[in-house]
Design a protein that fits this description.
Layout (H helix, E strand, L loop, with lengths): L4 E5 L11 H10 L2 H20 L4 H13 L4 H18 L3 H12 L3 E9 L3 H8 L3 E5 L1 E4 L2 E6 L7 H13 L4 E6 L5 H5 L3 E4 L4 H7 L5 E2 L17
Parallel strand pairs: 1-2, 1-6, 2-3, 6-7, 7-8
Antiparallel strand pairs: 4-5
Length: 232
């Protein structure tokens, strides 16, 4: 009996060419100019707070979401998310990531998209790319309208490592293959059975070089190759 394998992908910078939250919010606000004004008024103070208080990203993320999106309906944001996903698929995704996603799907692996970006649109990205499950930062809804405040921890850094440990508890014996791109992804990549740093910047590459995390996309499996081949 084969060991179940789980493929765990970060989103921003790993699958996508750049971060997604700011472009998503700006795309919504450009269709609603009054909301753009709210963002311009609120964000300087939130950015100053971010710089002075240890560069914690959760409050900054929350300020952007609340300023740009609070009060919009699930239907409105569903339409915005569909437009955003279509735009990403046209020109915003790394081809190597798409090849790797397709290879894991062809092997029958369980696919999890784990992102610090919010559950306003990350589940729509996951569905479009064929993932089985999404783990991302949760935001508050007031019935059918978005409140926007974070209702989970910001799914970043050590919080992602904690989420990997929860996956292990839920799926005992499952082999986890993880992909991330940034320094903040290294904590959870280190606790995967194999963790790969892809599209990494200089700081992330230097830190990964002194850990068990592997650098670069692994070779795609040959057709008909055993799923267990190449394990360490």
């Amino acid at each position: 009996m084969r060991t179940m394998q789980l493929a765990l992908f970060d989103l921003d910078g790993t699958i996508t060419r750049r971060d997604t939250l700011f472009p998503y919010v700006m795309g919504v606000c450009l269709r609603r100019p009054a909301r753009l004004g709210r963002v311009l008024l609120r964000m300087p103070g939130a950015l100053l707070h971010f710089l002075l208080r240890g560069k914690e990203r959760g409050p900054l993320k929350e300020a952007l979401i609340v300023a740009g999106l609070a009060g919009l309906s699930r239907a409105e944001l569903g339409t915005a998310s569909a437009r955003f996903v279509a735009r990403l698929r046209r020109r915003g995704l790394h081809p190597e990531a798409l090849e790797r996603i397709a290879a894991h799907r062809a092997q029958g692996d369980y696919m999890v998209l784990m992102s610090a970006s919010p559950d306003i649109y990350v589940p729509a990205v996951a569905r479009a790319l064929g993932f089985n499950e999404t783990i991302c930062t949760g935001v508050r809804w007031d019935g059918m309208l978005l409140g926007g405040e974070l209702v989970t921890e910001n799914r970043r850094g050590e919080e992602k490592r904690r989420c990997v440990e929860q996956l292990r508890s839920r799926l005992p014996g499952c082999r986890i293959i993880g992909y991330g791109n940034s320094e903040s992804d290294l904590p959870h990549l280190r606790v995967c059975d194999r963790g790969f740093l892809v599209n990494g910047g200089d700081r992330a590459l230097r830190e990964a070089a002194h850990s068990t995390v592997e650098i670069g996309w692994p070779p795609l499996p040959q057709k008909g190759a055993s799923r267990g081949a190449g394990t360490r």
